Each structure stands twice: as C-alpha cells, then as structure tokens.
Amino acid sequence: MRIDLTYAGLTEQMLQRLKLAAQLLASQQIQASVRAWDGTHCHVVVVLALNGYGEYAQEIARRRGTTALRLSYSTEAFDNVRWQLAPDSPAGVMAQTLIKIIEDVESNSLSSLADMHAGYPGSLARTVLRKIDTTSTPPNVPGLLRLARDPKLRAHTIQASVSGRKITLRLATSRVFAATLSDLQASSVLLNSPGWSLSPVPQGTNSPNCGEVSLSLDAYCLGGALQSPEKLPPFPDGCYTLKSWPDLGSAPRLVEALRVAQVLLRSSITPDELAGVCDMNKVNVSACLWAFLASGLLYSTANLSVSNLTTVVTPIKPFSRLLERIASRFGLSPRSVNIGNGT
C-alpha cells in the first residue's frame, strides 16, 4: 500500500520524527512518502496546532475530507479533530497512530467517503433548480451552472471537456486537474459558456489520469465565473451563507470574491444586500454565488435549523493568521465590514 503523507507548520525536529515514523510503516507493508503540504490531494496531513499555516491546512483538509493528525499539547477537545498527539511524541507512537488512521480511512468505502465529504447542500441545489430555467438541454447550459445545479455530480470524479480542452474534476477533494496549465486556464475562461461535456467516472473503476497541473475547485470556479459574469443568470433570491473559507490560491486576483466570502462567513444575507454591503455590482455578486454553489460551499439558511446554522456560520475563525495577512492587504480584515445587524 502506498500512502501520501504531508505536513504543515512542523519544526525541523517534528519533521524528522515524522519521516522516521514513515519509515517504520514499512513493517506493515505501507510505503509512505513525506512531503510539505501544498494544497493538493493527500491521504493524511500532519499539522502543528497554533501555527497559522498548520491551522489553515487543517481547515482545508477538514472541508475536503482529508484526515488530519493534529500535534498539540492541549487536552481540549476540538470539533472535527479525531486524531491528536503531543508535538514531542516519539516516532514509534506516531507510527502506531498513523497505522490506526490508515486502517480507519481504508475501512470506509469510496461511496461513503464521497457522500460524507462532498459537502454539497442538495436541498439548496433543488431549490435553485426550481428557480431557474431548466428547459434547455444540458449542452446549451453553461458548464458552471451544470456543476452548480446537479448535486449528483458531487459524488463522482468528472472527466470534462470544452473546445478541445480536457480536465478532470475531483469534486470530493475540491481539485481540478489538467495535462497543461493552458488547458486549465482556457477551460476556466469557458466555464460560463455552453458546450461542456461532463462525464462522471463510475465508482469502482480505475481513476483516470488526471494530469500534472492542478488548482483548487474554489479558485477555478470563481476565476471562471468572474471572467464573463454577464453570461450567468441572476442568482435566486434567498438568504445564504458560506460553511467555510474558500481555498483561493489566486487570492490577490480574486479580491472581489474575498470580500463576498468574508461577508457570507459572518452573516446570512440576500444577494441584493450582499451587493450593497460589498459595494459591488449585482452581476459580479451573482457570479460569485454561482461559483460558491458549484464548489459546494454555499448554504441556504432557509434549509437549515437554528442549531445547524450556528455550526455552519461559526465553525472556525474565517481568518487564520495566514489568511488575515493576505486579506489585510486588500482592506479585508474581519473588522473591516459592518453588516449593520451587529454580526
């Protein structure tokens, strides 16, 4: 068995113990590679608590369904944190814990993992579907809308193509792959256009060759949506919120999306109110909402109970130390937006 281990925020001593632990896994016929976490898919990510980069990696892993091993001296229980060790744990203890994690991951079926971690609000998809024109045949519907309005796609890896450009969307892990950077960029520009072929890969079949170049699904959808937002219909009226901070590898280029995400993380709000608070035109706000829906981040608060809404709106601090530094460059600190209702 081959396992891809990544790490974020570790000290040099912790990293050496992790590498030794990976070598000890060989006694269980487990070949483990160790590399720095870079946002791409992995089996397990080992993070250091109270480290800005480590906390950010843990949150992205949580949303994608990637198992995280948290290194912390704290005995406090954290939501969504099942595996935790002291930072000075010896390599042998770390290896034993990694074996348990791997066994736990392997015990879950592919379909269960997809359903559990896709994070797609199907009830919202059905609500939106009823409010937009669905009389067109799929080839005449923009690719972004097809991703946004079909929750069944969330349980699959999708092989997609448009105008000769081929990509692979692994929606359960929020990554988009292509053979070349040109294919990735050109297909993103065409997201708001029709002519897309979307073919789900049946569960149980061999995973397709995804290509060497990848981008987060959030950044891919937002980048494409904002290229030609006028091609998208207005987003249906209602109150919406984000369940977690988007993974925007191109954050400086997507400053409008950052502003929209900040407001949606702090409140339940309508598209018109969102445009006013963000001081943006409604067309661009609507494009951001379609992109957030397609990437599985957007929730309709009308479909959530009060208790569920609390866990969705405030599961984490939306700005980790790393993200706060990025956002502050564009005037997007958590205190820079006044919603008006005290939230």
Describe this structure in words.
It is built from 13 helices and 12 strands. α1 (12-24) crosses α3 (91-106) and α9 (255-266) crosses α10. The protein has helices spanning 12-24, 52-64, 91-106, 110-117, 122-131, 143-149, 181-189, 217-225, 255-266, 271-278, 282-294, 306-313, 321-328; strands at 2-8, 31-36, 44-48, 67-71, 83-85, 157-162, 165-170, 175-178, 197-201, 213-216, 240-242, 298-300. With 343 residues, it is of the alpha/beta class. The chain has 2 domains: 2-107, Response regulator (Rossmann fold, 3-Layer(aba) Sandwich), CATH 3.40.50; 117-328, no CATH class. The chain has a 5-stranded parallel sheet with strand order 2-1-3-4-5, with helices on both faces. A 5-stranded antiparallel sheet has the order 9-6-7-8-10. The N and C termini lie far apart (48 Å).
Short description:
The protein is of the alpha/beta class and 343 residues long. It has 2 domains: 2-107, Response regulator (Rossmann fold, 3-Layer(aba) Sandwich); 117-328, no CATH class. The chain has helices at 12-24, 52-64, 91-106, 110-117, 122-131, 143-149, 181-189, 217-225, 255-266, 271-278, 282-294, 306-313, 321-328; strands at 2-8, 31-36, 44-48, 67-71, 83-85, 157-162, 165-170, 175-178, 197-201, 213-216, 240-242, 298-300.
- Overall pLDDT: 75
- Structural class assignment: alpha/beta
Largest sheet: 5 strands, parallel
Anisotropy-based shape: globular
Radius of gyration, whole Å? 20 Å
Number of helices: 13
- The strand line-up of the biggest sheet is 2-1-3-4-5
Compressed to H and E, one letter per element, the order equals EHEEHEEHHHHEEEHEEHEHHHEHH
Low-confidence stretches: 109-137, 303-321, 333-343
Q: How much helicity do the residues have? A: 25-40%
Portion of residues in beta strands equals 15-25%
Q: Could you tell me the number of beta strands? A: 12
- What's the number of structural domains? 2
Q: How widely separated are the two ends? A: 48 Å
